[in-house]
Amino acid sequence: MPGTKTDGPDFASASLARHLVRGTVGFGTLAGSVALLPVVGPVSLVLLPAGLLALRGCPMCWTVGLLQTLSRGRLQRSCENGRCHLNVAGGGQQHSESVAS
User: Fold this and answer.
1) Which strand ranges, in their side-by-side order, compose the sheet holding 75-80?
2) I want to staple 79 with a disulfide (CB 3.0 to 4.6 A). Which of 1, 27, 84, 89 is the partner?
3) What are 48-64's pLDDT values in tens digits?
């Protein structure tokens, strides 16, 4: 859905491959910093900021971004007269939800 504004923050990446690489680097460095702690001591904690930077601050935000990246362009929401519809692009499926004004 290029060109549309969302109500909340956007954690999606430009592509699924880029998002998965960020997750691999992020979770890998976080796990590595803890796993290497007995071997190299507190020096391994230097990896923590790199992991958090790759995950843009939090692992849950990365997970939300993964879902946003997967659904980008496939789901479209439209609201009319207090009733919102979630449409699957090209599928014709529709999910309705009432919204209180």
Assistant:
1) 75-80, 83-88, 94-98
2) 84
3) 999 999 998 889 989 99
